[in-house]
Design brief:
Strands 1, 2, 3, 5, 7, 8, 9, 10, 11, 12 and 13 form an eleven-stranded parallel β-sheet that branches. A two-stranded parallel ribbon has the order 4-6. It is of the alpha/beta class and 262 residues long. 21% of the residues lie in helices and 26% in strands.
């Protein structure tokens, strides 16, 4: 149905949202069905008119990465790209051969896979799932050379954790991640536990933060929020839940510029 609609419609759609999760069984091979839709979606007329593309696929590792990389690079008006890739096997690389290169892209969301390359000079907002190990360092730091991810222009970062992040301290990996992006103004954690140590790293790294939203803050020191004093521009601060044996205290003198606290 999706392929037929893409093939026959004459309407100039600028926003396309496709969920290509075929079959009740998560391991059902769906290569042919997905390929049929992809072949229609990535024709020139669609590539030239799409402004927003939300694409969800159940795929095997590295399937369609070449086609998807080429298509994204040819979308001259693309502003928002949302990719959700459900893996069909447990053997899934943290980084794929997927390359996200686009001159107009403003907002990128990736779930289920981290692109091997992100090169979008207009990119301002990034949402991703944070991994539990540090194999990604070679892609971000690239052994002292230019990183495979171009992050200097970003203004907003949203990190999603999921159930696997419960009781995991990702401070070590996040510390490396922070070094590339000191210019962030908005930082959000969704379904993710932030330890007191990680909060300190964030406050020391992202000194330009204006908005900081935490899902769960894990701490034992009631004065843990003192680290916020290192954020002179902080305007909005929120915590959905607190895990720990003590109640936190936020003194007005810590964040004199704070306007909203949730």
């Amino acid at each position: 149905d999706a392929a037929s609609m893409l093939k026959h419609t004459q309407r100039p759609y600028h926003k396309v949202h496709l969920h290509l999760f075929f079959g009740a069984n998560a391991l059902t091979p769906v290569d042919d069905e997905v390929a049929t839709v992809i072949s229609e979606l990535f024709k020139p007329r669609w590539l030239q008119q799409l402004v927003v593309l939300k694409l969800g696929m159940r795929v095997y590792p590295e399937k369609f990465t070449v086609e998807l990389s080429d298509a994204v690079a040819k979308m001259d008006h693309l502003q928002e790209l949302d990719l959700s890739l459900m893996r069909c096997t447990k053997d899934w690389p943290l980084f794929s051969q997927l390359k996200v290169k686009n001159a107009t892209l403003d907002k990128l969301k990736v779930h289920g896979v981290w692109p091997g390359v992100i090169d979008c000079p207009n990119l301002r907002s990034l949402e991703l799932e944070f991994p539990l190990h540090n194999k990604y360092k070679q892609y971000l730091l690239h052994q002292g050379e230019e990183p495979c991810w171009s992050m200097k222009q970003l203004q907003e970062l949203c990190i999603r954790g999921g159930s696997r992040s419960v009781n995991k301290d990702l401070s070590t990996g996040m510390e490396q991640f922070c070094k590339l992006m000191p210019q962030f103004k908005r930082l959000y954690f969704d379904d993710f536990i932030v330890s007191e140590r990680l909060l300190r790293i964030i406050c020391e790294s992202f000194v330009h933060l204006e908005s900081l939203m935490l899902h769960i803050l894990k701490m034992d020191d009631p004065n843990a929020l003192r680290h916020l004093e290192k954020l002179p521009n902080l305007r909005d601060f929120g915590i959905w839940d607190i895990a720990g044996a003590t109640q936190c205290r936020l003194l007005p003198s810590v964040c004199p510029s704070l306007k909203s606290c949730y």
